[in-house]
TrEMBL record:
This is ABC transporter permease subunit. GO terms for molecular function: transmembrane transporter activity. One of its GO terms (cellular component) is ATP-binding cassette (ABC) transporter complex. Keywords: Cell membrane, Membrane, Transmembrane, Transmembrane helix, Transport. Belongs to the binding-protein-dependent transport system permease family. HisMQ subfamily. It is found in: Cell inner membrane; Cell membrane. It comes from the Bacteria. NCBIfam families: HEQRo_perm_3TM (TIGR01726).
Amino acid sequence: MIRAFGWNEFLVIVAAAQWTIALSAIAFAGGSVGGLLMALMRVSETRALRLFATGFIRVFQGTPLLMQLFLVFFGMNIFGFAINPWIAATIALALHASAFLGEIWRGCIEAVPKGQREAATALGLRYFRSMRHVILPQAARIAVAPTVGFLVQLIKGTSLASIIGFTELTRQGQIINNATFSPFLVFGTVAAVYFLLCWPLSLIARRMETRFSRATAR
């Protein structure tokens, strides 16, 4: 039976945003760990580590996120590992984020003037201590704006998790639309919620980028 789109349906859509936020947060946390490892491997002095990180990044940047979700969800089941959509979406998005954050942070590390690394070497600091105490703190300042910008893209990317049955914001919108047949109201509400989640982060990224540009111009 078709029902009208009303206040209860609106609240259900808004409540579903908590799963989008949770999925984004977990995937970003996992991607941050993986991304840091990829970035450090990319600038490593060991050729094997550089090749591994380069291959990993190219695979996940060169394939659609939707395919990655399918491969994790269906692939794990094919090999006999029962996996639910929540775990599959988390793994796929974390791997996706690792590749993109790794490349973003690699660029930020290499943006630190070479003189800083030479100065650390002159002070007798080895590779890891040089990275920890000299290079990474400076790279982190550069990385804030693009990292927040990627987080916005990741939040929007969680909408693809609906394809494998994870009930987040987009999937809940699809369920309610099937019951109300009010696509404009339903998906307009979904789009508004995504906007309210992403717009503040976009402002933060823009302000951080402007602040960094002013600081480097002095």
